[in-house]
Amino acid sequence: MSGHSKWATIKHKKGAQDKARGKLFAKLIRQVEVAAREGGGDQDANATLRTMFQKARDASVPMDTIDRAIKRGTGELEGVRYEPVTYEAYAPSGVAVIIETLTDNRNRTGSDIRAIFSKNGGSMAEPGAVAWQFERKGVILVPKKSSGAEISEDDIMLAALEAGAEDVGDSGDSWEVTTAPGEMAAVRDALEAAGIGFDSADITLLATNTVPLDNESDAKKVLRLVDLLEEHDDVQNVYANFDIPDSILELVEA
User: Fold this and answer.
1) Mean pLDDT over residues 232-239, rounded?
2) For the whole model, what pTM was predicted?
3) Are residues 14 and 108 in the same domain?
4) Do 226 and 197 sit in the same domain of this protein?
5) Predicted pLDDT of residue 1
6) Are residues 34 and 9 in the same domain?
7) Are 117 and 241 within one domain?
8) What is the 3-state secondary structure (H, E, C) of the chain?
């Protein structure tokens, strides 16, 4: 599990308890709306919408809020029209970063993203300069302990691999199940059917090679930039290929 994935997991566990919850709701609602607009409002026929719907429900977004977002996406209700824009850039220490946004004003969003990088030791990159260093995967994180019971790697593999998972790896307190994007829903359903709970299930970008950040100063610079990006209202996802040792992450988290 990469340092970026660990950092995202740390923040995911804290997120439900702080002010980020409201901002998370807004971003998930926007993702649902765009998925419905691009692929229709039928979850059975729109895999992206099905994934976004489940993400919103996992975060406890109310059903009526999700329904309204779908209707705005399909045109049944009026709303602001958002478009997806992806940016590629480099953080300090040569860390590759991909930023996925949904915006109603790409000039404003682009200017804001550039300003964040220029003020924090990073730089924008040309399209394609960074993307080749990542691959899109489904990732499901399963806690090793649930309700006091141990969940073994064999338990996970039995359910997940038969449903189409590519790999099961050890990521500290969790098992990390990796799938092709199109197989994640089936693997998730198989784990649920086997009575195996999970902390998160998402389509994400995984780095194919990583940049080690072995000292606290470099780690703080990169993580501050990532946090600033994620705080922007238009930013939906931030992916980076840094790898920070657990000992450094603990210092930063403290």
Assistant:
1) 92
2) 0.82
3) no
4) no
5) 45
6) yes
7) yes
8) CCHHHHHHHHHHHHHCCCCHHHHHHHHHHHHHHHHHHHHCCCCCCCHHHHHHHHHHHHCCCCHHHHHHHHHHHHCCCCCCCCEEEEEEEEEHHHEEEEEEEEECCHHHHHHHHHHHHHHCCCEECCCCCCHHHEEEEEEEEEECEECCEECCHHHHHHHHHHCCCCEEEEECCEEEEEECHHHHHHHHHHHHHCCCCCCEEEEEEEECCCEECCCHHHHHHHHHHHHHHHHCCCEEEEEECEECCHHHHHHHHC
**Does one domain contain both 238 and 112?**
yes
Q: How many CA atoms lie within 13 A of 96 on its CB side?
A: 17
* Domain contains 254: no
Both 224 and 100 in one domain: the answer is: yes
List, for residues 28-46, the tens digit of each pLDDT value.
Answer: 999 999 999 999 999 989 9
Domain range for 150 is 134-207
SS3 145: strand
